[in-house]
Amino acid sequence: MAANSQIEWTEATWNPVTGCTKVSQGCKNCYALAMSKRLVAMNNPRYKNGFNVTLHHDLIDLPLKWKKPRKIFVNSMSDMFHEDIPDEFIFSIFHTMNLASWHTFQILTKRSERLKELAPKLQWTNNIWQGVSVENEKVIHRVDHLRETDAKIKFLSCEPLLGSLSKLDLRGIHWVIVGGESGPKARPMEEEWVRDIRDQCQEQKVAFFFKQWGGVQKFRNGRLLDGQFWDEYPSNDILAN
Ligand code: SF4
Nearest C-alpha to atom 5 of ligand 1 is from which residue? Predict the structure, then answer.
């Protein structure tokens, strides 16, 4: 885990679980897998099992020791609702998040079926933002699964965006992040796909965050869309309702 994160929409990462397996096209060039290979090569003891799902019991209460409030991306090196993570371990992670009310926790999953199944057993305190990855139309059903949960703030991560998402039903969704794939094998993202999602967010009054164009040299391509940065976040007013 890292007290600071390079990811544009968060501030820190916390990884009580590491390792995962691929489930959809968005996983093809998995950043976490590439990062874990580097950590294995550096003999990092957290990655002695490589990218196999590994539970780190000693990290369960780590955020309680961080006194300064942070936005924390939970399990950035795994998927919270992976089938190999026992229910009880997920409950323990939620227990920590429920106690650490001064932090904001951001969870992202591609396993929306298990999210939906477990959601009624989880305590959705206001500081937990739940998201699903939606890289193309084939996985759009994840939005419906997310909508069925009681998470107070619900978001979509459309990264890497691999196709047009022209019919997004954003009812009950508060935030959409869009980004192109980066790295040597980056797959292309069309400008029109991004504009279309931004316009749908504006029409449906949903916060829009444009993370990056991506590409082989992502820092060259930047993150401006139509001449401006799009760094919107969900409004705190949602929590008052
Ligand atoms: S779900 Fe996420 S962490 Fe798991 S393989 Fe896919 S991209 Fe990687």
Answer: 22
